[in-house]
Automatic annotation (TrEMBL):
<dbReference type="InterPro" id="IPR002302">
    <property type="entry name" value="Leu-tRNA-ligase"/>
</dbReference>
<dbReference type="InterPro" id="IPR025709">
    <property type="entry name" value="Leu_tRNA-synth_edit"/>
</dbReference>
<dbReference type="InterPro" id="IPR009080">
    <property type="entry name" value="tRNAsynth_Ia_anticodon-bd"/>
</dbReference>
<dbReference type="Pfam" id="PF08264">
    <property type="entry name" value="Anticodon_1"/>
</dbReference>
<protein>
    <recommendedName>
        <fullName>Leucine--tRNA ligase</fullName>
        <ecNumber>6.1.1.4</ecNumber>
    </recommendedName>
</protein>
<dbReference type="Pfam" id="PF13603">
    <property type="entry name" value="tRNA-synt_1_2"/>
</dbReference>
<dbReference type="InterPro" id="IPR015413">
    <property type="entry name" value="Methionyl/Leucyl_tRNA_Synth"/>
</dbReference>
<dbReference type="Pfam" id="PF00133">
    <property type="entry name" value="tRNA-synt_1"/>
</dbReference>
<dbReference type="GO" id="GO:0005524">
    <property type="term" value="F:ATP binding"/>
</dbReference>
<feature type="binding site">
    <location>
        <position position="577"/>
    </location>
    <ligand>
        <name>ATP</name>
    </ligand>
</feature>
<dbReference type="InterPro" id="IPR013155">
    <property type="entry name" value="M/V/L/I-tRNA-synth_anticd-bd"/>
</dbReference>
<dbReference type="GO" id="GO:0006429">
    <property type="term" value="P:leucyl-tRNA aminoacylation"/>
</dbReference>
<dbReference type="InterPro" id="IPR014729">
    <property type="entry name" value="Rossmann-like_a/b/a_fold"/>
</dbReference>
<dbReference type="InterPro" id="IPR009008">
    <property type="entry name" value="Val/Leu/Ile-tRNA-synth_edit"/>
</dbReference>
<feature type="domain" description="Leucyl-tRNA synthetase editing">
    <location>
        <begin position="214"/>
        <end position="396"/>
    </location>
</feature>
<dbReference type="GO" id="GO:0004823">
    <property type="term" value="F:leucine-tRNA ligase activity"/>
</dbReference>
<comment type="similarity">
    <text>Belongs to the class-I aminoacyl-tRNA synthetase family.</text>
</comment>
């Protein structure tokens, strides 16, 4: 079947999207693959899932776009090239070819003419154009700052790429800090909108993804408070609890921040230096851990309390982070746990300023962090927390000592990478003109094609820097000799807009055609792994909002609905080389065929749950497919026969299946749809065996419906059935079968069960249940058995099928 239908679809253009088609549109998009090798079980699952809504909406009469492409820049290609003394393009495009062939065989209903690769010049020319658009708007900038540096990958990492205990996401090497001149996108300008627009996604994105995004953006509201410092500038702190201002007994600055070194007095300098030295071996995670013993150094200097004028000692400690808020906090030990532990360790005073009804924190060791009434706070005594916060901000503003402030955990997106295989940053550095954007008619800034092997090895700066022919360029503004920026863009830049490029991937005129993009997007259904819950989705949402602000798109969120598929595991564990429990997709396809593997993926569990390959049976799927196929083979009624004249029992099952499948598909319960199809096939087979055989038009109807619904999961079998049933065109472009309401009428009723005339229980039974069967079922109910036992046994049973059973006892 594979050999027959694959070329058919290609010649027929079954899945090619016609832009002249005026039917309503649906856009189903799978997160595009990275060309790491051939397809694996994870791809097989994700793409089987993504193909279901695409094929479903197509049958429902929509003009469906379901494209595919490759996220083809990135480190693995470069590492392979270094190892094999080759150019990264070789490895990349070989793998893409292999994967593309496998995807075709896997029968994803894709319009192949839309295929794109982010490493094509045709694509990255526009990635560079987008970078320059952001640059024009002041949303791309360069700054020198300490950044996350992976000593093994020899490149910087975005905060998002530092995981777990502070290790590199890719190679798990502990990440260090290094001061470098780096490019950033100002995603922080969009923090509020990234948060607030999530309202549009509520209910159609997984709640946990929304929670992770919210957390990552981390909006806190509070106040910014300025403390005067003798012989120094004011120090500003961010606090969520300005109502606790009278409880401030010390101030802490991040020990590793510049501020600490500037504030420290000569007498304390040596102690601070020693402390900072020790800190270098402590990871960020450890520093933030709540149960770590507090450490710190007094800086020898004092701040002035803005309301009481008291002298507040300034300390440096590691529990305050340099890059959050202002890198300094006001210490309120009575009401903040970390401050309390710090105060108890260094014998600093603990002043209660909110009465929460708790024991004195200095005694209990537990900060009174909850709700309460302000005390010992002359300007807002007696006010409850929220009112006290409002009042304290008014006081601060009146005194010019502070104001309301919103703070975010989100940092700007560090996008430059010191690696070769990415889109070069289209900026020229001129000794006279400074940063000069590469003019549009000089795009793309192409990657050299003649660098290979060792020339690409990481050296702490981009390998491009060593290619002086490439680096040296005339300044587009003054013509003097200038140099190209040698960094390349994070591959997350590439993947932040590919779903828009699919609308016209071959265009040399524009990144995308606005009008058409507005017709197709936002994506109706996005499908991909939860590992992208933060990075890729946040960046794509950011890009979309920027494009919206530029008037280039008319929507503010790129993905209307998101489905995170589970993982394919084996024996309850993730597949891994070390466990030796990997399953090879190619072998599975050879053994069972594409359809059986796809069906197994869908039948195993709801799409968002894991599929344990040790618990499933592709052989059973194969058997089911054969059963379905034989159904079509056994149909012998003529194609025009009126189904209404067929067996009513089977018709009821068929129409109930259509109605339920529709609801289940829209609810993404694909596994249940498969289960219902199995029931339908069984019912049809029963009818063939017991009734008029394949000549009954109800059997034809059941077989046709089976082929149509099955086409979402097992396209080869479905196509073959459809042809056997006498159709010329592809089942994929047929229609979604319609159901007759009249056939859906409930065929069960509720029977009541009485004991001595009193209603004791109910049960759902078929309308045509026999008296004896009803009696048996009623007497078997646990509740009824209890009453019978209590009342001294059954004397008589009165049955009025199907609605009543009365048990006389005693
Ligand atoms: C005084 C205070 C009193 C605070 C109190 C809390 C409770 P989120 O919700 O995370 O924004 N803080 C501010 N900057 C910090 C930094 N760079 N490193 C570590 N901690 C920092 O929390 C904000 C609170 O975390 C701020 O409010 C500050 O402590 C602390 F009863 O200020 B608070
Ligand atoms: Zn110049």
């Amino acid at each position: 079947m594979e050999a027959k239908w694959l070329p058919f679809w290609e010649q027929d253009g079954t899945f090619v999207v016609d832009e002249a088609d005026t039917r309503p549109k649906k856009y189903v998009c799978d997160m595009f693959p990275y060309p790491s090798g051939d397809l694996h079980m994870g791809h097989a699952e994700a793409f089987a899932i993504g193909d279901v809504p695409a094929r479903y909406w197509r049958l429902r009469g929509y003009n469906v776009l379901h494209p595919i492409g490759w996220d083809s820049f990135g480190l693995p290609a470069e590492n392979a090239a270094i190892k094999n003394n080759a150019h990264p393009a070789e490895w990349t495009y070989n793998n893409i070819d292999t994967q593309a062939a496998s995807f075709k065989r896997y029968a994803i209903s894709t319009d192949w003419s839309r295929r794109l690769h982010t490493s094509d010049e045709l694509y990255y020319r526009w990635t560079q154009w987008l970078f320059l658009k952001l640059y024009e708007r002041g949303l791309a900038y360069r700054k020198n700052s300490p950044v996350n540096w992976c000593p093994s990958c020899q490149t910087v990492l975005a905060n998002e790429q530092v995981i777990g205990d502070g290790v590199c996401e890719r190679c798990k090497t502990p990440v260090t800090k290094k001061a470098l001149n780096q490019w950033y996108f100002k995603i922080t300008d969009y923090a509020d909108r990234l948060l607030d627009d999530m309202e549009q996604l509520e209910g159609s994105w997984p709640e946990r993804v929304l929670a992770m995004q919210r957390n990552w953006i981390g909006r806190s509201t509070g106040a910014s408070v300025r403390f005067r410092v003798e012989d120094y500038e004011d120090i500003e702190v961010f606090t969520t609890r300005p109502d606790t201002l009278y409880g401030v007994t010390f101030m802490v600055v991040a020990a590793d921040a510049e501020l600490a070194a500037e504030l420290v007095t000569d007498a304390q300098r040596a102690e601070l230096e020693e402390y900072r030295e020790k800190l270098k071996s402590v990871s960020e995670i450890e520093r933030q851990s709540a149960d770590r013993e507090k450490t710190g150094v007094f800086l020898g200097r004092y701040a002035v309390h803005p309301l009481t004028g008291e002298q507040i000692p300034i300390w440096a400690a590691d529990y305050v982070l340099a890059d959050y808020g202002t890198g300094a906090v006001m210490g309120v030990p009575a009401h903040d746990q970390r401050d309390l532990e710090f105060a108890l360790k260094f014998e600093l005073p603990v002043n209660v300023v909110v009465d929460t009804g708790n024991e004195n924190p200095a005694v209990s060791g537990e900060a009174a962090a909850g709700e309460g009434v302000a005390v010992n706070s002359p300007k807002w005594d007696g006010l409850a927390k929220d009112e006290a916060i409002t009042r304290s901000i008014e006081v601060l503003e009146a005194d010019g000592a502070g104001e309301a402030k919103v703070n975010y955990r989100l940092r700007d997106w560090l996008l430059s990478r010191q690696r070769f295989w990415g889109a070069p940053i289209p900026i020229i550095h001129c000794p006279d003109c400074g940063e000069v954007p590469v003019p549009d008619d000089q795009l793309p800034v192409q990657l050299p094609t003649d660098m290979r092997g060792e020339e690409l090895a990481p050296k702490g700066q981009s390998p491009l820097a060593s290619n002086s022919d490439w680096v040296t360029v005339d300044c587009p503004e003054c013509g003097k000799t200038a140099t190209r920026d040698t960094d390349t863009m994070d591959t997350f830049v590439d993947s932040s807009w590919y779903y828009i490029r699919y609308i016209d991937p071959q265009s040399t005129e524009a990144a995308f055609p606005t009008e058409l993009v507005n017709e197709w997007l936002p994506v109706d259904q996005y499908v991909g792994g939860v590992e992208h819950a933060i990075l890729h989705l946040l960046y794509s949402r950011f890009f979309t909002k920027v494009l919206y602000d530029m008037g280039l798109v008319n929507f503010t969120e790129p993905f209307k609905a998101l489905l995170n598929q589970g993982q394919v595991i084996n024996g309850g564990k993730a597949m891994s080389k070390s466990l030796g429990n990997g399953v090879n997709l190619g072998e599975q396809l050879e053994a069972f065929g594409v359809d059986a593997v796809r069906l197994t993926m869908l039948f195993a569990s709801p799409p968002e749950d894991d599929v344990d390959w040790a618990d499933v049976s592709p052989a059973a799927s194969q058997k089911f497919l054969a059963r379905a196929w034989r159904l079509a083979q056994d149909v012998s009624s003529d194609p025009g026969a009126d189904a209404a004249t067929g067996a009513q029992g089977l018709r009821a099952v068929t129409h109930r299946t259509i109605a339920d499948a529709q609801a289940l598909l829209e609810d993404q319960k694909y596994n249940v749809v498969v289960a219902r199809l199995m029931e339908l096939v069984n019912a049809a087979r029963k009818e063939i065996d017991s009734g008029a055989g394949g000549a009954d038009p109800a059997v034809r109807e059941a077989a046709e419906v089976t082929a149509q619904i099955l086409s979402l999961a097992a396209p080869y079998t479905a196509e073959d059935m459809w042809e056997m049933l006498g159709h010329q065109a592809s089942v994929s472009n047929s229609t979604w079968p319609s159901y007759e309401e009249a056939l859906l009428v409930e065929d069960t009723v509720t029977a009541v069960v009485q004991v001595k005339g009193k209603l004791r229980d109910k049960l759902e039974v078929p309308v045509d249940i026999s008296e004896s069967e009803l009696e048996e079922k009623a007497l078997a109910l646990p509740k009824i058995q209890r009453y019978i036992a209590e009342d001294g046994g059954v004397r008589k049973v009165i049955v009025r099928a199907p609605k009543l059973v009365n048990v006389v006892t005693g």
